[in-house]
Every structure is written in C-alpha cells, then in structure tokens.
Amino acid sequence: EPFTHRPLQILKYETAAMRRRVAELVAEQRYDLVHLDMLHLAGYMDVVGGTPVVLAQHNVEATILRRRAETDTHLLRRAYLRYQQAKLARYEARACRRAARVVAVSDVDASELQRMSGRGDIAVVPNGVDTGYFDLPQAAVRAGRLVFVGAFTWFPNQDAVAYFCERILPLVQAQVPEAHLTVVGRQPDTAAVRRLAALPGVELAGLLEDIRPTVAEAAVYVVPLRIGGGTRLKILDALSLSKAIVSTSVGCEGLEVTHGLDILVADEPAEFAARIVELLRQPQAAAELGRRGRETAVSRYDWSRVAQGLMAVYRQAARAGRLPASAAARARPRLARTAAAIGAAMGLAGAAMMLIADA
Known about the structure:
Layout: H1 8-11, H2 16-28, E1 31-37, E2 53-57, H3 61-71, H4 75-98, E3 101-104, H5 107-117, E4 123-124, E5 145-149, H6 155-175, E6 180-184, H7 191-197, E7 202-206, H8 212-216, E8 220-223, H9 233-240, E9 245-247, E10 264-265, H10 269-281, H11 283-301, H12 303-320, H13 325-345, E11 352-357
Parallel strand pairs: 1-2, 2-3, 3-4, 5-6, 5-8, 6-7, 8-9, 9-10
Antiparallel strand pairs: 1-11
C-alpha cells in the first residue's frame, strides 16, 4: 500500500501549512537530525530531505487499535476498527523502516516493532519522570479515596473509568462503604461523562493545574486500563508520589515493576477490588508499597538517567547523516542539552517535532 495512503489516526495531524513550514525550515539551514515524537508525524519524513530522522514511538499504535477492537461489542464498529488497525499496522511498519533510528519506550514495544518492521536495531529509551517535582512532604491520606488520572479525550481512559465504576467500585464499596473514586483529567461534557458523574461515590475533578495535592491525599491510585500501549506516565507519576498502586497488566505493561513489591496487579474485577480493599484496610502496607514504588521511580525512571539513553540515539542518528568529525564534535554539547529537553517534552501529551541543527 503506498505510504501516502494515511490511516485516519494519522490524517488529522497532517496539514499543508505544516508541510510548507517544515520544508521552509529544512531549506533555510542544514540540520543534524529531526526528532519526530510519535508516529502521527511520520508523514513529514517526505519533506525533510536526507536529514536523519529519529522516530520516537510512545506506543505501538496498531496494538492500541487492536485492543480497542477486541473490547468493542458493536459488530460493525469492531469490523471497521479492525480494518483501520490493519491499515495502521502497515503504515507503522513502513515508517519504522524509513527512519534512521526508532525509539521504543519498553522492551515489549521494541519486540513488537521489530516483528512488524523487520529491523533489529530498535532502541529502548523508557519514559521518565521528574522525581524531584513529585517529592512532596507526606500528606494526610483521605480515608477511602481512590484516584484515577487521565484525560477522557483518550478512549482507553474512557473505557478504564467506565469499567472500574461499573464492575469494580461496587465490589469495593460493598466491603468499604466510604470508598470513593476521584477522576482527574480533562472531561468533555458528553453523555458518557455525565452518566459517570451521576454514579454514587464518583467525583469528576476535571483538569487540575497541579495534580499532586489531590493524588497525594489518595489512599490508592488505580490504573484499570484494558486498552493501551507504550508505558503509562501516570504510573511513573504515582510511583514518584509514593502512592500505593493497583493496576491491570495492560496498565503497567512495559514498566520494570514487580507485583507485590512496588505495585499490585490484577486483571479480573473481583481480584482488582480485593487488592484495593486490602490496601484500604492496611494503611501501613499501602505506605510501604508506595515507599518501594518511589525507590523504583528514582533508580530507573528519573529523567537524568533517561536522557543519557536518548543522547546515545541522537549520536547514532547524527553519524548516520555522515557529519564531518569537526561538526560532530561541536554538536555533542548541544545534543546533550537537547536530549534532556526532549526527554522532558516526551512526558507531555501530543505529538511534537524537533529539528536539531549544528550551531
């Protein structure tokens, strides 16, 4: 299938104005490499000329769409999602083959991208977190408060909250009546959101300027995701805040966490509810789980560590562009600064492009 046949998930990020602007920037000066943050910008490879491209894959997008199709009960919609998923998988494989280097956020994603694209040099640079920003004084925990963080503009979050409220929360409340869920994140005024807001024990806090105080007061941080890919920034935030976390396998997929050590994992509603009840009834055990979780975040996922891996990928991509030795030497300090900056940017939602020039 020609590369110009874009899946719907890609088309909305491509505009003629953006293509013109990228072409203008490339024409104005020579760049060492282009960093494309997420597959959605891969179509702009056509206009960067011979500049090496680093494609940062926050997820395997085809996997997310496949999982969404698997959970959809509407026959026609499921068939359409499967059609789009097949189209997206072909596009994603070809984009990976075209890039000078491809970055995945976990070994799980790297293996899948390797299988799809046939290339064996997929780099793994995990998502990271500013652990210092989340290192707060110990807050008083509100009894029974559960918290979920995620925007309703992303379907996997919609599915996760609906699944939790309908199939898990009632089981928890049957044993701990004061249990209640606070949902943090952008919530458009839709029928689905209004239906959730009307449920007993559910509070929609909306988009907060600072999530830390609300999350810090939670007894348990829940991640009931059934659909997803990549790794969950929300879990890294919660680990850094020393919160006790209960997650599905999909929710913590790709992260170096261990059930019973720094997180609790459950995939069935009854088991998920039982894990929450266990933590609500044993606050000291919840605090210890959170303490070990923060140790994991600091030792494995702090941005200072993650940026080093991204810097190595940039150097390899720049060498692929056959920089003169003098230019490569001049570029190293600037690339190091840029690696740290883009590392932080990768923690933000949305696709982004960075063109890196030899100053």
